[in-house]
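Quick log. Single chain, no ligands specified.
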Amino acid sequence: MAHIHLGEGSFPLWALVLWTALGAALVGAVVYRVRKGGIKTHQIALAGIGAAASFAIFQLNIPVWGGIHMNLTGLVGILAGPLLGVLIALVVNIFSAALGHGAVGLLGANTLVNASEAIVAYYAFRTLLRMDWDVFPASASAATLGLSAGAVLMGAIIVISGVNGSALPRGDLTIAVAGLVGLNLGVAVIEGLLTGFVVQFLASVRPDLVGLADRTASEESAGVTA
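-> predicted structure:
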């Protein structure tokens, strides 16, 4: 949902190097963890489906205040997990940049933004489930929280970096970016609700896909015992 839609050369060189290095470090750490620990077969299938769906909806851009859209990164994080969520964010951004959706030089920054959405959504969802939340409010809240974190990070990256050629002082740039972040927070709520409906449906037909097989089995066992 959050994405830096600035063109090539918008960020100063030091900022490009910084965000690219951080993005590369994150991806490198994830690849190391995946190679060391492996991933489950069903997660690979979910990752492929999630990447395709995220990329498709990512291209539907509403030209408001630099462009807003959904990208389903919260849903991707909940279903595929934080590690594959980071890799999916990278792949989606690479293909999107190849189509002119975002600058190639901002791949590092945009990967950080979208990866943070998947990571926060996953851990928030698991935390809320452990607190005995129902699936819909847990997934909707987790996705909204993850997407909100990405929107805030996006705004922070732009303000910290500054924009080449902009006549706005840093204070005015912060105010303008705050408006963009606020707009994205509103879209986060909508995408969060959509994510909640999808996860609730999957939990009802294939609870194993969202990691709820054990919970469903225990609930059925308790029902039989009662």
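The helical segments are 13-37, 41-58, 73-80, 82-98, 107-130, 135-161, 170-205, 213-225.
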